[in-house]
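Deliverable D4.2, example record:
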Amino acid sequence: MAEKSSPEDEHRPGYEDARAELVEVVRALEAGGTTLEESLVLWERGERLAAICQDWLDGARRRLEAAMGSEDG
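Output generated by the structure prediction step:
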């Protein structure tokens, strides 16, 4: 059964795009030179990107487990 998509899903980046942006956010935070407010915005964006990546990985795991389960039956 296919999962329903929400309007938010239509704007959600793919795993590779989210991961690449997350890497850039981490680099910017590690480099410093930003104000506290800018750092907080970057941190919050990084948290959202990390959650998106985790959602993609969890979904891939579920699909793999479902495929493996259908092979057993």
